[in-house]
Amino acid sequence: MRDPQARAAYPGVPSEPSESKLEGRACHEASQLLLERWRKGGVLDFSGIVGSLSKDGIVITQELFDAAYEYVNDVAKYCDFNFLTKEVKVEQRVDLGRWLPGWYCIPDAYVYDVSSNVLTVWDAKFGHAIVDVFENWQLLIGAFGIIQALDITEPVRQAVKLDLRVVQPRGFTSQGTIRKWFVTAGAEGVGKYWNELHRALPLVIGETPPTKFGTQCKNCSARANCDTLLRVGYEGIDFAGSLQTHTLTGHNLGVDLKILRRAQKAIEYRLSGLEEQAIHEIKSGKSVSFYTAQQSKGRERWKKDVPHDQVIMMGDLMGVDIRKPVEMDTPSQVRKKGIDESVIAEYSETPLTGLKLVEIDGDKARQIFNNTKG
């Protein structure tokens, strides 16, 4: 959990939302529209969405629509199968004041099935950065807030099970793009995490909360001001000494890689925070030694209010054909339209792009180490 006191003290500098954030908002808008139409008519109505503009002026491309559809389709399939179409809640604020005063969350969608005592919560992500669902505390705390808001009686609450889902169409992992984590009821399931949260809360909201470097630092508004992140990042910088060389293999090589990747992330997180702060200072008319700010540009594109046929006509008048050749849908898009998997497999392929280094968890590492010893 990010330190709420640090984030309150350093809420971050005001800045324009990035292109990726605007695309994420546009994807959520398309998702909400699809869900509204589904809930009213019981079917997924796609008409008029692709090519329309979001509230931020972002074009809803086919890729954005496909991502929204994959998320909405999972919600619709689950709710239709369990007869929960009318019960599902979409983008509704959930109060978290019981744990952190003034805090709240807005789950993308959730539904409580009284008959099975299962609370299902969806988190839709459009970005590429992988979001894991296992022990995802953002989802867990949101689910706890929902349980409180539902005002379930104590005996039933103790038996609630959680079905937590991250839908990330552009985040491919071995678990697929819809990753699920089912948390059983009782002391080894929901109760375990409920108790862990309540043990941590006094420390988090205390006068001197402990801080620890991790992936939570990436988007923390206080990352440019955090002493812990500074120390972790600077541990691997500016060491001068006499010439000594060495070769690493096996276990020592793996340990060094793990340590350096951890330091690399710490440096990246702090660097992004400092860059954000520096741009804000320069825009405010202040001086930052060694740096200035230049206007960056995205990819050139046609103006949104210019009809494509006018641009094509301009090319025709000059004797140039600027029409784009007709393209087929990707295998993934064809699969979503219901074409049989065996047919797709016959005409498609997934090329190998070489080896990449993937970090494994401790249990697997010990297993491999024991096998190599034998």
Protein model, in words:
The chain is an alpha+beta fold and 374 residues long. It is 43% helix and 8% strand. The chain contains twelve helices and seven strands. Helix 2 (19-41) runs parallel beside helix 3 and helix 7 crosses helix 8 (250-283). The model is unreliable at 238-245 (pLDDT under 50).
How far from one another are the termini? Answer: 41 Å
Please bin the fraction of helical residues: 40-55%
Query: What is the typical, i.e. mean, pLDDT?
Result: 78
Element pattern in H and E: HHHEEEEEHHEEHHHHHHH
Number of strands: 7
Main sheet properties:
5 strands, mixed
- Determine the strand fraction and express it as a percent band: 5-15%
Shape, principal axes of CA atoms: globular
Give the strand line-up of the largest sheet.
1-4-5-6-7
Radius of gyration: 25 Å
Which residues form runs of ≥5 with pLDDT under 50? 238-245
Structural class: alpha+beta
Number of helices: 12
Secondary structure: elements and pairs:
Layout lengths: L3 H6 L9 H23 L20 H20 L7 E2 L3 E2 L8 E2 L3 E5 L4 E7 L12 H14 L3 H4 L3 E7 L10 E6 L6 H15 L22 H8 L15 H34 L24 H10 L13 H6 L4 H7 L14 H12 L1
Parallel strand pairs: 5-6
Antiparallel strand pairs: 1-4, 2-3, 4-5, 6-7
Helix pairs in contact: 2-3, 7-8
Key descriptive features of the protein:
8% strand; 374 residues; two-stranded antiparallel ribbon; five-stranded mixed β-sheet; alpha+beta
